[in-house]
Write a structure and sequence with these properties.
Blueprint: E1 2-6, H1 12-24, E2 29-33, E3 38-40, E4 46-48, E5 51-52, E6 63-66, H2 70-77, H3 80-92, E7 95-99, H4 103-108, E8 116-117, E9 131-132, E10 138-141, E11 144-147, H5 153-165, H6 167-176
Parallel strand pairs: 1-2, 1-6, 2-5, 6-7, 7-11, 8-9
Antiparallel strand pairs: 3-4, 10-11
Helix pairs in contact: 1-5, 5-6
């Protein structure tokens, strides 16, 4: 199961594009509202969530995904239950995926210490001891997957498909949506 943590002010393209690609590949994905069953994005799009934070089954979590958007990142950062869930899932070896500003949450939790990662340009100092790769759209380091920004949403989403379902599945989804990957 892939759980996507949505806090008020999340960046919609960074959440919805990867969710769409994962579901096209057959992954089971649930949108998790931190404070209710409907969450409003940074540009005013209301999204109905599949469950609340208390309903996340940690032991069935293959991947925990954190979209960016400063409001959404602030909401997750300020929620002790969400931070605890991230830490416990990481400790269990589940994939932890974060895009745009969200990798800063992982850095503050110490999950990115001396690990390769990417973050929204201009936020590198908030990555603490992470080894930031500014020339990359997506970086995978073990079970941690980071993406740069909204413009990386397709590449990021396809990488999530690849790590969960394999390269053939990612290639199939890529062909189905007629997306040309960056080289």
């Amino acid at each position: 199961m892939v759980y996507v943590l949505l806090g008020e002010g999340f960046e919609e393209s960074e959440a919805i594009v990867p969710v769409d690609l994962l579901r096209r590949a057959g992954a089971e994905v649930r949108l998790v509202g931190l404070k209710g069953d409907t969450v409003t994005s940074s540009h005013g799009v209301a999204v109905k969530c599949d469950c609340g934070l208390k309903e996340v089954d940690e032991h069935k979590t293959q991947m925990l995904f954190l979209p960016g958007g400063l409001g959404g990142v602030e909401a997750i950062s300020g929620d002790e239950a969400a931070l605890g869930l991230i830490q416990r899932c990481a400790d269990r070896g589940a994939y932890i995926a974060a895009i745009c500003a969200a990798p800063t949450i992982l850095a503050r939790l110490g999950l990115l210490d001396r690990r390769h990662a990417v973050v929204y340009p201009g936020m590198e100092e908030q990555m603490l001891s992470a080894v930031v790769q500014p020339d990359k759209a997506v970086v995978v380091d073990g079970h941690l997957i980071t993406g740069r920004a909204a413009g990386s949403a397709f590449d990021f989403g396809l990488k999530l498909v690849e790590v969960l379902k394999g390269k053939d599945a990612a290639d199939g989804v890529c062909a189905a949506v007629h997306y040309q990957r960056r080289k």
